[in-house]
Amino acid sequence: MPFIKPTYNIDGDVTDIIIEALISDGVKGLIFDLDSTLIESKSARLTEEVKAWLSKARPHFKMVILSNNKNSIYLEKVKTILDMPVIGYAKKPSRRGFRQAMEMLELTPQEVAVIGDRPLTDILGGHRSGAKTVLVKILRSIREPSWKTSIRNLERRLIGK
Ligand SMILES: [Mg+2]
Fold this sequence. Notes:
This protein has helices spanning about 20-25, 50-55, 70-80, 95-105, 120-130, 145-160, and strands at about 10, 30, 60-65, 85, 110-115, 130-135. The protein contains six helices and six strands. The structure holds magnesium ion.
C-alpha cells in the first residue's frame, strides 16, 4: 500500500473547497467523484449549498464527473441535474477512466484536480494519474450509518492522514 497524501485535505465537504486556491495553483479542470461528494447517492438530491458552490466554480474550470456507479438511469439523471458530462463504470482507482476524463477536458494531469471522498479510489487513482487531488468529507447533509463512517476513517488512516 503506497503512502499517499492528497494535495489538499479539506476539513469539510466539497463546498469548503476554496476556489481561488485551486485557480492560483494552476488548476483548470475538475474531475469530480459523484456519490457523497456532489450528490446524495440513491436520492440523487442536489443540495442548495452544492448548487451554489458549483455555480461559483463553473466559470473557472472545465468539469467532468467520474463515477464507479453502474446505474445508467441514475447517471443519466445526474448528468441533467448537474449539467456536466458523466463517465460511469469508471473502476476507480484504475487509471483508464481518469485518462478518459482528462482527454474529455483537453487538459494535462498537472492542470487537473480530482475531487472525491474516498482515499482508495478517488485519491489513489488521481494521484497515480498525475493529477492534483482533493480529499473531501462526505456531504454534511448525509447521515450515514456508523459502520460506513468507520470504514471511511480506516481508509484515511491507511493513506496516512
Ligand atoms: Mg464517493
